Amino acid sequence: MDGVSPSRSKPVPVAVLQGRARAPELVAYLREGVDRSGLTRTEYAQRIDVAWKTLSRYLNGRQVPQPDVCGRIALINGDDPEYVQMLAGHVPSPGVSPHAKLVHRRDLERLAAALEGMSEIDRAYIVSSTEALAAHLRRTRS
Question: What is the pTM of this model?
């Protein structure tokens, strides 16, 4: 890698490249989330209720968002708040590799696209089945 993020033309922060970022996976996640949101950094910061300078510190790996901010970030990005809190180090990681997380996100994007072509009844069935499976996995892992 030449120091340029694949999703942006801006260089990756030096702290990330040198392994000094406080949560490098979170930095990548946030950068992707800001890019995909279509919002400016100022608008994104307003949506998560932080100053744009604070968002800049998150994006450069100099600061990690508090759990409540992680929840707001998750809402904007369409993710589970616990996942974002895990990236930030507030919740213990279940030992999932970064590659698995990327594959999981791609699978979710494919699933979302497939759901759009289904009837309301089929979508509701799949969503309820997925929620039941997730609840079962949470109970068995606890």
Answer: 0.55
